[in-house]
Amino acid sequence: xxxxxxxxxxxxxxxxxxxxxxxxxxxxxxxxxxxxxxxxxxxxxxxxxxxxxxxxxxxxxxxxxxxxxxxxxxxxxxxxxxxxxxxxxxxxxxxxxxxxxxxxxxxxxxxxxxxxxxxxxxxxxxxxxxxxxxxxxxxxxxxxxxxxxxxxxxxxx
Length: 157
Fold this sequence. Notes:
Layout: H1 5-15, H2 32-47, E1 52-54, E2 62-68, E3 79-84, E4 89-94, H3 103-107, H4 110-122, E5 126-127, H5 130-133, H6 149-154
Parallel strand pairs: 4-5
Antiparallel strand pairs: 1-2, 2-3, 3-4
Helix pairs in contact: 2-4
């Protein structure tokens, strides 16, 4: 399911807790690995491929990163998917690292985005497009260099 930008902005603000940077206070650490593994399986089914996954993420506000190989995507580049520790948010970009370039958002083919959004919805998660995450973060206390919503929910702390 694709949510409109205003709804997603509201969700980003609602989940923001300046005292909990890497995990929400009520974070269920026991269910997070299971949800991440389910997301991997759903993406492999939807893209009909084997995905690589980084399951050993530390000091971050996201659980892990999944790479869909370029040969399986309409974007014709690898697609990188991240699951946040906050509110079951998911985002993706094509080519390079998700956060390295605004082009990662522009390169993500609509069909790839729709597959990821559908997998997100199957898990009860929300897909957040990169253009929203690149908006200026005006919430709690992050480091000076952390200026975007991306840093709040999908980056290393």
